[in-house]
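ok, trying the design again with the full structure, not the truncated one.
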């Protein structure tokens, strides 16, 4: 029996929803609503657009362009306020590059959760919000909830979080996400599954795969405090294979509503191999999951 006691509950009090008003961004709206209403959070929606005045066009058109942009801003602002009626919502519409605008908004509003929709990759490269999502995923220090292109096709129950999968490589960075996964499971009365994936056993291995899995399952059990076991009803899964593929397949087959990953902001090149869950693996999960993915930074 795990005798540890749970840490303070995770509270999302200030949520930032980054949107471009696309269908990809709209996929995230039910989850924004669900979490904001549950935690009675303040919501900031951020839309970053290209500059209205284009120096390559004739100056004579600039005044009309500014007026048209102002009218569109008013329309977009009203759409957001209607979408999130009943939630304390601030609408930010900025010009320029999204990363500096996002960083400034996060700091100014004491943001503790960023939500984005992403289309991932296509044969023509990354769609709008694909490359942006990857940059946000790698650099933002607070938790990030990404809602991918497949989430809406399977999960049409209004953003409910009934089944949560916490996938960990048991590194310190990955373990740091455990309290968040446990807290969410308790808050939403969800079933929590803890999963660790190891490489396929080799003939030259000195320790039997059965013993390895038993030892790793014990480490997973130690992550769940005794006072959380009754509410979370945790299950512990140790599998072997490719981490991203195994996590994605398990989440798909078991119809998980949320995947929780632990990582840290990466300052190396995207996909660089480090001692913690590599960005390439985590971003593959974010891009292809059939449910939202919450990435918790260390």
């Amino acid at each position: 029996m795990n005798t540890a006691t749970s840490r303070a509950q995770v509270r999302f009090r200030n949520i930032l929803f980054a949107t471009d008003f696309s269908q990809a961004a709209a996929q995230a709206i039910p989850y924004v609503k669900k979490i904001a209403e549950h935690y009675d959070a303040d919501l900031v929606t951020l839309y970053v657009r290209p500059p209205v005045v284009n120096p390559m066009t004739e100056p004579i058109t600039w005044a009309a362009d500014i007026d048209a942009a102002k009218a569109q801003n008013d329309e977009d602002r009203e759409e957001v306020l209607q979408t999130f009626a009943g939630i304390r919502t601030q609408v930010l519409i900025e010009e320029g590059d999204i990363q500096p605008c996002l960083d400034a908004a996060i700091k100014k509003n004491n943001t503790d959760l960023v939500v984005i929709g992403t289309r991932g990759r296509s044969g023509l490269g990354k769609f709008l919000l694909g490359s942006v999502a990857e940059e946000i995923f790698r650099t933002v220090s607070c938790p990030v909830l990404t809602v991918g292109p497949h989430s809406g096709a399977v999960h049409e129950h209004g953003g409910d979080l009934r089944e949560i999968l916490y996938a960990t490589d048991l590194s310190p960075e990955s373990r740091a996400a455990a309290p968040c996964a446990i807290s969410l499971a308790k808050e939403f009365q969800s079933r929590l599954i803890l999963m660790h994936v190891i490489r396929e056993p080799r003939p030259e291995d000195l320790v039997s795969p059965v013993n390895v899995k038993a030892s790793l399952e014990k480490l997973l059990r130690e992550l769940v405090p005794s006072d959380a076991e009754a509410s979370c009803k945790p299950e512990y899964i140790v599998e072997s294979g490719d981490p991203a593929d195994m996590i994605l397949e398990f989440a798909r087959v078991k119809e998980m509503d949320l995947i929780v990953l632990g990582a840290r902001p990466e300052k190396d090149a995207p996909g660089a191999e480090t001692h913690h869950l590599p960005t390439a693996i985590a971003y593959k999960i974010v891009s292809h999951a059939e449910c939202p993915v919450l990435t918790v930074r260390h």
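Keeping the full-length input from now on. The two ends are 27 Å apart (CA to CA).
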